[in-house]
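Researcher: Next entry: ROK family protein (Rhodococcoides kroppenstedtii).
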Amino acid sequence: MRDRSTRSALVRAVHLGGARTRAELAEDLSLNRSTVKSLVDDLVADGLVTEHPSSGGGAGRPSLVVDPVASAAWVLSVDAAVDWVTFSAIGWGGTTLAEVEHERGAGRSPEELVERIVAATADLTARVGTSPRAVSVAVPGLVRSADGSVRVAPNLGWRDVPLGQSVGDAVGLACVVANESDLGVVAEHTRGCARGVDDVVYLFAEFGVGAGILSAGTLLGGSGGYAGEVGHMRATRRGRRCSCGSDGCWELSVGQEALRDALGLAGPARPAALARAIADIAARRGTLPDAYVEDLATGVCTIVTMVDPRAVVFGGLFADVLGVPSVMDHVRAAVNDCLVGRQQGVALHVSGLGRRISVIGAAELAFAQLLPRL
Ligand SMILES: [Zn+2]
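Model: Predicted structure:
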């Protein structure tokens, strides 16, 4: 059996699992060894993998290790964040081949971003030695997945920007555009601490608070693309006016500015300063202020009850907050005490992907379309 879907399954297994022996691939994919051999021979002929003897000992003939050639199929993954833009050449198999990061400076227009992407494509092509197969862009805003147009990105000042079309035309490649929270959960699902878990919430705080939700392996978008805007669920009976125009939003209790206030800091709420303050206060007191932690736990329980995930991964400033053991203990106890937690347990993790989570997720979204064609 050497049909296209079998080749795709093997390509995907190598992409997600990295270098593995033919024997391991045969076992994982429930294929016989001769089928794996002929598929791998084709991939070697196409320049997509190399093979070398496994270094492990053991009796008998060693199985050859199948190793993806990252530069043979790579995507240009762009994180168009508010304060910086990262351009990353990520090869199949998940290897980062080259990466550059620019401060945003004053220019945040879509036209400027497209120009930078064109320049980065040339730069990274020269460095890697081969051309990218696709481009993917992470944007802090609402994106229509069908055509990659940005409906609104408040922190960039964008509205109705046909970014996918503009980038695709400019570089002559397929371009996928997605929201950073969706990409967060994609990254955790493929390369992070929720690998292989199909029901996951990625919950993060940066400028705002948001969530990417994977339900039965599918990204949850909602009818208008607003699913996951958990920072704006009404969490208090009366509160200050939120930037979204509503009143009493959860973000006002647990977001960046609320965290600054809870920690007793003055001035603008900057992530690096907040992370330092969290570490400092946790070291001195062993925990963070009770009211903040309780509001956080309440919201997490609401989300868990609504979504019924197997795992929740905390990113951005929440990674710093939940990295304090006593805070994690408090939130975990609250989750274990709510209906879903009592019934089946929900794993809580702190993201280990850091600031690169968006480029990793964006690359994986592009690979989801690219791999079946390799
Ligand atoms: Zn709001």
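Model: Note for the record: The chain has three domains: 4-68, 72-183+357-373, 195-352.
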